Amino acid sequence: MSDRTGAISSQYIPVFLLTGFLGSGKTSLLSRLIHRPEFSDTAVIINEFGEVGLDHMLVDQSSDTDIVLLDSGCLCCAMSGSLQESLESLYYRRLRKEIPHFERIVIETSGLADPGAIINAIGGDPAVARRFRLAGIITTVDALHGLEAIGSYREAAAQLAVADHVVLTKTDLLGDSVAALDLRRELGIRNPHAEIHVGPTLDSAGIRRLFTSTETRPTDPPALPNRNERGSPLGHVFKYGITAQTFHLQKPISWPAYADWVHAMQRRHGESLLRAKGILRMEDGECYAIHAVHHLFSAPLKLQRAIEGPQQGALVLITEKLSRQELEETVALLLQ
Question: What is the mean pLDDT of the chain?
Answer without folding.
Answer: 78
